[in-house]
Design a protein that fits this description.
269 residues, Protocatechuate 4,5-dioxygenase, Chain B, globular
Length: 269
């Protein structure tokens, strides 16, 4: 049940020393780890040249548990609506991140919508690109990776609430890390304006508001479904505070401000 990386050499460097140096550089932009434990962090998943700075700063400022529930979108359309990789190791250049089988077992028992499924993850990059950051921050990190592709809010609410209850009952801390980019292929100014509406709902800890805002305004936030689940779970865990750490678009790197992708870093405690 081991997973080999699929976007290594494209989204990020495949040489371990080079990769670690790049990741360390992005993490160095953080302003210090927060005192309060992070219940949920949302970070982007593009090529590091575009989104690495937002991802690095956000995770460097997070106060993550050693066990992380990873929630990401399903770009390939393969597999189950709540596809949980149940066991084994996710390999990254120079190492590997183990799957926490106690946690995955509890999640599978928590809600019948959650399925043990590797198919959804085989060609999916959204969780893979975050792993080098998590591993660099804590070489002992363990994960439970889930791809979410359920378009119905009532089901997202149910599953998120049940996940939160399962995490609460586990008896040890678990942080949720959601992988999402924001608006895709619109102008820089339009992306900033649209993404602000979605991010306002996210930091207000309003998962239904986030979901409806994204849908009603045609905001192309690819991780709205996993973020909705994650927020419901975080609320079940007692979340009271959301914060936008940083926001950027690809235009600030490429110089093309006509067709950008938006990237946001959010912390919930």
């Amino acid at each position: 049940m081991d997973r080999q990386p699929v976007v290594v050499g494209r989204f990020y460097d495949g040489v371990p020393d080079n990769l670690n140096a790049v990741v360390d550089g992005f993490l160095a932009a953080g302003r210090g780890r927060r005192a309060e434990p992070t219940l949920l962090a949302m970070v982007p998943h593009a090529g590091y040249v575009f989104s690495g700075a937002v991802c690095g700063q956000t995770l460097a400022e997070a106060h993550l548990a050693q066990t992380v529930l990873l929630l990401g979108p399903n770009h390939t359309g393969r597999g189950e609506p709540f596809a949980l990789w149940p066991e084994g190791t996710w390999h990254i250049p120079g190492g590997g991140v183990p799957v926490d089988t106690e946690l995955t077992g509890e999640l599978l028992a928590a809600d019948s919508h959650i399925s043990p499924d590797v198919e959804a993850h085989l060609g999916e990059h959204s969780l893979e690109v975050i792993l080098p950051f998590l591993h660099r921050l804590d070489p002992a990190v363990a994960i439970a990776p889930m791809a979410v592709s359920m378009p119905y809010l009532d089901v997202l609410r149910q599953v998120g609430t049940n996940i939160g209850q399962a995490l609460k009952a586990l008896g040890r801390p678990v942080s949720i890390v959601v992988s999402s980019d924001m608006s895709h292929y619109i102008s820089h100014d339009s992306a900033k304006r649209r993404d602000a509406m979605a991010l306002d709902a996210a930091v207000a800890l309003d998962p239904a508001g986030l979901f409806e805002t994204v849908r009603s305004n045609n905001i192309s936030m690819c991780g709205v479904m996993p973020m909705t689940v994650g927020l419901y779970a975080a609320l079940e865990l007692g979340a009271t505070k959301g914060e936008l750490v940083t926001y950027a678009t690809s235009g600030e790197v490429s110089g093309d401000y006509d067709q950008v992708v938006g990237y946001a870093g959010v912390l919930v405690s």
